[in-house]
Design a protein that fits this description.
The protein is α/β, with parallel strands linked by helices and 154 residues long. It has one domain: TIM Barrel, CATH 3.20.20. The protein is built from six helices and four strands. It is globular and about 45 Å long.
């Protein structure tokens, strides 16, 4: 279950993204400084950040592990919980490529970090695509067709 504190932080994060919060105006940039543990998050918030983002690399490296899902889902969720508990600003959680092969797996990951106190999340396409994405890429290469251009947001 998502608590009132997380819901309030999620609303604030949305306002910040939409430029509706005090001090931001249309065309403003929302800066999300990266934190890798509770201490770095607290320092970033104390310095005046309106929101904090976790960095998958930084969180993994703080555990002596590699980026790219070097931590388990449970370890990442626990780190997000510690970071969110250390600050009074919204936290977005970098969940790598979602810690799973299926959309349901990714949804479970998102629900888990939100349950841990994150107000939002970010994810990315895996570096080594699996399933239908990998099959589609293989078929495209085999056919001689060029790869589709990546969108600017990729």
């Amino acid at each position: 279950m998502v608590g009132d504190k997380t819901i309030a932080r999620a609303r604030l994060l949305r306002e910040l993204h939409e430029g509706l919060h005090e001090g931001l105006h249309e065309g403003s940039v929302l800066v999300l400084p990266n934190a890798w543990d509770a201490a770095s998050a607290a320092l970033v918030a104390r310095a005046g950040a309106r929101a904090v983002a976790t960095t998958s690399g930084g969180v993994a490296w703080a555990f002596g592990r590699a980026d790219g899902e070097g931590l388990t889902r449970d370890e990442t969720v626990a780190a997000v919980a510690r970071i969110a508990a250390a600050v009074d600003v919204p936290v977005t959680a970098d969940v790598e490529s979602g810690y799973g092969e299926t959309p349901e797996d990714v949804a479970d990951t998102i629900r888990s970090v939100i349950g841990a106190g994150a107000a939002g999340s970010t994810s990315r396409t895996p570096a080594r695509p699996t399933g239908s994405c990998a099959q589609s890429r293989s078929r495209r290469r085999a056919s001689g067709r060029p790869a589709r251009p990546r969108s600017p947001s990729s």
